[in-house]
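User: I'm preparing a small set of examples for a lab meeting where we compare how different chains pack in three dimensions. I only have the primary sequence for this one, and I'd like the structure in token form so I can line it up with the others. Please keep the answer compact; I'll paste it straight into my notes.
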Amino acid sequence: LDEYCYNIIETLQECLDPLDIEHPVVITESGRALIAYSSMLLFNVLEVRDHKPGTIPEIVPDDSPDMLVNLYAVLNNVKLQNLQECYNDAIYYRDELRELFHHGQATLRERALAENVSLAILEKISELLPQARRVSAELESLPELLSDIYYGNFSLFQSLPDIWAIDQIFPIMPIHRLNEKPTRAAVIADMTCDCDGKIDSFSYEDGIRKTLPLHPLIEGEEYYLSVFLVGAYQETLGDLHNLFGDTNVVSVHINEDGSFDFVREFHGDSIADVLSYVEYDPKVMQEQFRKLAEQAVRDGKISVPMRQQMLRAFSDSMNGYTFFER
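Assistant: Understood. Below is the structure token output for the 326-residue chain.
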């Protein structure tokens, strides 16, 4: 920040001094530098998808296509001296077997086994990469391709649009289990249907990396991540691209003694709120659903108690949060 200020003042001096113009009082409102620290986004992880291979038979099944036999041979021959060769062979034989499957010349089981064996080969190569003296660009990206996908309970387009729009890098980290070493390399995906709803660039002390170290999920326990330095702009810039509304917001006041108070709490948009933003009338939808349920009772398709249960569920859903609630 000091260097930023020096550059501005020096530039003004260089322009004004030769003309004997009096130096002005400089006032700046440096948006992100001032406001970024005031806000963060918290979200829980809903699910994790890994790229671990499934169970692989020790011996290639009888009557398997040659491509599958070749993949087994590559799997048993991965060494530090031939990483690139094994990588090329694994991709080639896997793709060739996919073609056989598309032409009806390989079964679904054979294709599934080929996918698993090729994943096992790539995993072996990835484990040996740190010991390699020279690594090609293809192999450098291998850990990223094999990284876990952590699905977060948020919408990137609503709460972090600058990641998508201008490739902004925000600091991201878990906010608990900090006494445990994270053992999984991951990228983050949001809960929208859009393939751009992902975070795959992360800040480190030595620069930008494509994966983030995270902890394995523990069944029955929540896992929370925080995105820092989001300031006052992200929610304001966010849109209804995927019909996710504003998140719940809490204002926290930090006292001089280090304690803190929750000053204000704001509930995020309900499903009914978001539908109304895009020109749907929740009351009309509720009435239409009620009429359909009544007709179903008359037709003998559902019972009266079931109708009441369905109407309550519909109403609760409309008044509920747009994001996932446990």
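A couple of notes for your slides: The chain has a mean pLDDT of 89. Residues 126 and 143 are 6 Å apart (CA to CA).

User: Perfect, thanks.
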